Amino acid sequence: MKRGTRCNEIKTSLTDEEYEALQRYKAIFDVTSDADAIRKFVRQCLFGTVGNLPANLIFGSEEIGQTRTKVPA
Known about the structure:
Elements (H helix, E strand, L loop, with lengths): L15 H13 L5 H14 L10 E4 L4 E4 L4
Antiparallel strand pairs: 1-2
């Protein structure tokens, strides 16, 4: 039987605060499972976020020719 590319399993426990943050992360990035959210988060932490921000967190301006993140002042 051929194994998939995801063969390194990790099991962990989260505090209530961490779990609530994970649920917010899932909502922002439209991820359905905890495992997929953790996998995506770890990948972003290890390899960076360039090209990984969802459309609802970025906006572009043709006038200034730059893309920025939406951050409240």
